Prior knowledge:
Layout: H1 4-85, H2 91-132
Amino acid sequence: MFAWNDLQPIAAMVSAVCSIVAATVAVTVYRKSQASDLSTKIAQGDRVIRKHTDRAIGEVKNQLVSANHRLAEMEDGVARIEESQKHFLVGKDLGPLHEKINGVSNQVAATAATSNALKEQLGVIHELLLRGNR
């Protein structure tokens, strides 16, 4: 049949093919195991990021609700102030009042001047009467 020398090249080729197949299987198994580890790590990272994002969004929503509440309170306060100020006098309302006060002030000044003049005249009359009786 075949001589051992004739089978050596065939045995070497079969051995080489088996080595290549074994190496290919080993590399494929290694890559798949790393790929599943990597996908697991990615999934875990995604969960952590999603959890952090959800928490951050919740905090932002709470801050927005709080800010809206404070803004509504401010709007109510401003509305109350505006309502109470409707009854206050403003510059255009004070103009006629200022004119009247100036008129009264002028009349008081005129009355004071007249009173001083009358006082002086009565003082002179009083002096004359006192001198005439002597």
